[in-house]
Amino acid sequence: MSILQENISLRPYNTFGIDVKARYFAEAKNVEDLVAIFKDPLSKSGPLLVLGGGSNMLFTQDFNGLVVKISILGIRAVENQDEIKVSAGGGVVWNDLVNYCVEHGFAGIENLSLIPGTVGASPIQNIGAYGVELKDVFDECTAFEIETGKLSKFDYAACRFGYRDSIFKNELKNKYIITEVRLKLNKKAKLQTKYGAISAELERRHIVQPTIADISAVVSDIRVSKLPDPKTIGNAGSFFKNPVISKAQFEQVYQKFPEMVHYPAPDNQIKVAAGWLIEQCGFKGKTVGETGTWKNQALVLVNHGHASGQEVYSFSEHIIQTVQNRFGILLEREVNIF
């Protein structure tokens, strides 16, 4: 009997709640399941989509291929003096891993609290928030090679991390499936509190010497205040990347808009807050048909109930064009479009 199922609705498997169907669908709870899935001749009958939490994607049509849901679980830690290496299965919910590390006093990912998705997707996207990126704590990952069925290790250099980017989004896209990620964390915390509203919120709470638990709690509360819960209203979190532009371009725009929210970026570049750009164009809380932007954060596009993926995509295109016309800055989508 085939491990693959046919004509399965993907609505429960994407946080936007878009109702499309997968021609074939399978769930992998271990590496042996992956081997069985890709031995099935039907697995070669169309495109492949590897699914974690379904939190960084927008379906604009039915998926005429194979969707593989990764449900490989398990967290384990190896302690060595001040350094801890924590490994987690690709199907572990990312925030469950953050909570595990905070509870055990393992510092390094507390700023990444409440980021949606699974551990296996974290290196692909090089997830980041509030001044921390996955690459800052990444040690290595184990990945299943689809063509051969063999497992390979990828260290930091091999992953070729960039801003919300890695080799798995480029040359190795749909060639490997990440089954486990190992992070390098510390018992002595080097807290990152200057990015976003963290320091202001700590001050408001009269916390002078914060712990990683304090940082995690503050970041979680800030995210909850700005971002809608996908269980209540369909969304994929931040829909657009914060654009990184040259210093020359920044200075040109900054002369016209001196209140523009921005941050320093590597290579003498400037990162501009996409949410601010979108809000200045009048999109914050705007509703168009069944889609729109979230009332508390213009960076988040939402499904008010029965939006099609194409409707959301068209709205995002309208935002991109409007921002470019006003600021001369091109927004790039952070979500994957299918």
Word description of this protein:
The structure is a single chain. The protein has about 350 residues and is an alpha+beta fold. The protein has 3 domains: about 5-70, Uridine Diphospho-n-acetylenolpyruvylglucosamine Reductase, domain 2 (2-Layer Sandwich); about 75-185, Uridine Diphospho-n-acetylenolpyruvylglucosamine Reductase, domain 3 (2-Layer Sandwich), CATH 3.30.465; about 235-335, Uridine Diphospho-n-acetylenolpyruvylglucosamine Reductase, domain 1. It has 9 helices and 20 strands. It has a 5-stranded antiparallel β-sheet. The protein has a 4-stranded mixed β-sheet with strand order 1-2-5-3.
Topology of helices and strands:
Elements: E1 5-9, E2 21-28, H1 31-39, E3 48-51, E4 57-58, E5 63-70, E6 75-80, E7 83-89, H2 94-103, H3 122-125, E8 128-129, E9 132-133, E10 138-145, E11 151-155, H4 156-159, E12 176-186, H5 198-204, H6 212-226, E13 234-238, E14 244-246, H7 247-256, E15 262-265, E16 269-272, H8 274-280, E17 287-288, E18 291-294, E19 297-303, H9 309-327, E20 336-337
Parallel strand pairs: 2-5, 3-5, 4-20
Antiparallel strand pairs: 1-2, 6-7, 7-12, 8-9, 10-11, 10-12, 13-19, 14-16, 15-16, 17-18, 18-19
